[in-house]
Design a protein that fits this description.
Blueprint (H helix, E strand, L loop, with lengths): L3 E3 L9 E3 L4 E7 L13 E8 L8 H10 L4 E6 L5 H20 L15 H26 L3
């Protein structure tokens, strides 16, 4: 297994390399139709990373990632109907995306916005107009029906 290269992103300007020794990979094949083992389709791949003991992360990155995953472990699985290699690649990409998201700095706090002047009045007027349109539609239908 190769090292996991996390592409550069908002929290990782230079990217991150997680050594292969820190990743745990598990494989399982689901039985195909008729119960026989199928080698080429639906090979489940699980990839796990222990954040608490990872030496690839700095202390600040580890603290940020542990806030997102308090258990200290990230586990991703890929089990599409494709080969084991493709599922392995998909699991590695998913783990890299999750790490990049977890290590990104939190978004800046938004200031609460005040509604513009007259917004409430416009909203109530539109609601009243919708109600009168529905009532009018009901009356027109009643008139059209033979009775």
């Amino acid at each position: 297994m190769r090292d996991l290269h996390v592409p550069a992103g908002p929290g990782l300007p230079e990217g991150l390399v997680v050594p292969a020794a820190e990743l745990v990979e598990r494989f399982s094949k689901s039985p195909g139709p008729g119960g026989q083992s199928v080698n080429t389709t639906d090979s489940r791949v699980e990839l796990e990373l222990d954040l608490a003991s990872s030496r690839a992360l700095t202390d600040a990155q580890r603290a940020r990632a542990l806030r997102r995953w308090p258990s200290g472990r990230i586990t991703v699985a890929a089990s599409e109907h494709r080969s084991q290699h493709r599922n392995r690649v998909a699991a590695r990409e998913r783990l890299a995306d999750l790490l990049r998201e977890a290590l990104a700095p939190p978004p800046p706090p938004r200031r609460p916005t005040r509604p513009s002047r007259g917004a409430k009045e416009r909203r109530l007027k539109a609601k009243k107009e919708r109600g009168s349109t529905k009532a009018l539609r009901g009356r027109v239908r009643d008139r059209d029906q033979p009775g």
